[in-house]
Predict the 3D structure of the following.
Amino acid sequence: MIGFTLQASDGRARLGQLETAHGVVHTPAFMTVGTAGTVKGLLPEQVAATGAEIILGNTYHLMLRPGAERLARLGGLHKFMNWPSPILTDSGGFQAMSLAKLRTIDEDGITFQSHLDGSRWRLTPEDAMGIQASLGSDIQMVLDECTPFPASEAEAAASMRRSMRWAERSRAAFKAPPGHGVFGIVQGGVYAALRHESASALRAIGFDGYAIGGLAVGEGQAQMLGVLDALDSHLPTERPRYLMGVGTPDDIIEAVIRGIDMFDCVLPTRSGRTGRAYTHDGTLNLRNARHQDDAGPLDADCACPVCAHYARAYLHHLFRCEEMLGPILLTLHNLYFYQGLMARLRRAIGERRLSDEGTAFLARYRAGGKETEPPAVGG
Amino acid sequence: MIGFTLQASDGRARLGQLETAHGVVHTPAFMTVGTAGTVKGLLPEQVAATGAEIILGNTYHLMLRPGAERLARLGGLHKFMNWPSPILTDSGGFQAMSLAKLRTIDEDGITFQSHLDGSRWRLTPEDAMGIQASLGSDIQMVLDECTPFPASEAEAAASMRRSMRWAERSRAAFKAPPGHGVFGIVQGGVYAALRHESASALRAIGFDGYAIGGLAVGEGQAQMLGVLDALDSHLPTERPRYLMGVGTPDDIIEAVIRGIDMFDCVLPTRSGRTGRAYTHDGTLNLRNARHQDDAGPLDADCACPVCAHYARAYLHHLFRCEEMLGPILLTLHNLYFYQGLMARLRRAIGERRLSDEGTAFLARYRAGGKETEPPAVGG
């Protein structure tokens, strides 16, 4: 069981805090992704300095390397990676279905071959909970089936109902100590009736939090927000709501307005590694040669140490030379940007002016647009 | 002109400090290599935290990218890379001869093609000084010719004499403001008479410091130390002595004992990136599978933050997964180790017990040995 305290609300948006064995997380929260026991390129203290209070670990990657038993022997994931704050882990199912080879699903679980060495693995709902417990995860996720997109209503229904049976088995297998919790995952594709049925099934089982899965898979923002609207009155208000794998600053603002408390996404970290920076005026691609003489910062309105100390010209130089520091600095800036956005949204909810704040942010952000990829030659 | 104050001596070893436009450097000093405007993988504040007071920039790399004129327009290398402390730059000659394509030397300078794009470049002694001035280097190095190894006495003599003519032209072209200096470079291969002639030529010109070049190129430690012994009474005592491109902890200790004040080497950074860690008990290769369950630190006697917070098992995991944090943490540890060694040597000189300290360090270090590369499969 983990604690969740609601402190204020503004329309459907909520200001709250999660209380876990490893500390408090202020919500709405963005969870930085630390796939294989590291937020790529950063030391944990650098991640914490961005304002991150919780990170996400990927069970699929960690069960393959270094392995759940080894991690347990070494004292768990927090100690292993020197992250003393909360960790949420996914179930491993999504990556087993998207990364692994020769994966098959049956009623009991998922069978797959490691994308690394072809070794054969089996992941049942009970396995997923056992592995996450070995990692010492503060918030575990139930194993679910990832419904393909697009899926017919019949396909989405069959998939969702299997996920609900797995959710019940996952909940029964969950045996973590106080301060640790388990979240159910609402499925059902873009079909409101299936989403309602799924939410109802999960509430009947009872979870520490309710995640919304199977979105941001190509359905578009309007349909995604439609699912959030459809689910709003079907999820318990007193428990956190987590929109999995989302998203852009734009998506996050719209989802916070619709009552979502938690997010995770690889965008700020992965984009940072490829040269893309988030700014208040849209995104920049630092690999473009137009930055090579620019003495200005990434974002004149950003208070992060990257914007305080480095010119766009320097960041361009680092990417041009394929220096590790380029991905490091851009990941750092992007995480400051995301955490700064979350802090701004939390403040606005507390002051009951989220709608104005979100509108102002999005007007400027959308006007800035996205800088395209650099041409194949030059730069 | 830069200042150099000798504070104590112990045998031939010297404790001192360099005073430059960007601050003081305590000697004997190890200069961390920051080739292309970055110490690979680390933020400047992380480099400074290891104890580094001065870094080395490579003129060859910087003249190609981002270019000397651009760097000057952007405010110089210190500002560009956010390193407010002293920077020494090499002349570019060594890398032009070792990295570039189609390089030729004539009496006036070096012609070469960039290893990056085949573009044609020319580097004369005057160019080398002008470029280093554009970078804002605190300590510039004269352009010299890299004598091949092995070289006959006649070859080494001809090469050294050209380097002395270039040293004179470099000195004449040096026009940096107060707090900036230029070092001459003693050449002459393994031939004591040539080294004496070279030192004498440089003293006649007059430099802020005297580097010893052309060593650690395959001649072996005994011959290298022989050159230091032969040069000892031929270099002015009141100016710093810099042994270029050296070296292992072993080499550094032996050279400090012989009166060397400054070192630079890629070993701690480059080794760190490939998984090799320096410890008081020799070197480790973290890619070896034997570390995968080891909960202990790299070095139980190291006070660095890497040894405080991370197990060998974690570092092995990072290298196995090719995670950026592996090279980052090992580079960091290795730089702490090198800077810790320098601090220990400085303390010992001040207390006139360098010989005992060096002997104790080397006995343990040499007994530890070097861990071999991991096998091609597994690990």
Observations:
- Residues 325-350 of chain B form the longest helix (26 residues).
- The mean pLDDT of chain B is 96.
- Chain B has two domains: 3-265, 278-368.
- The CA atoms of residues 210 and 241 of chain B lie 5 Å apart.
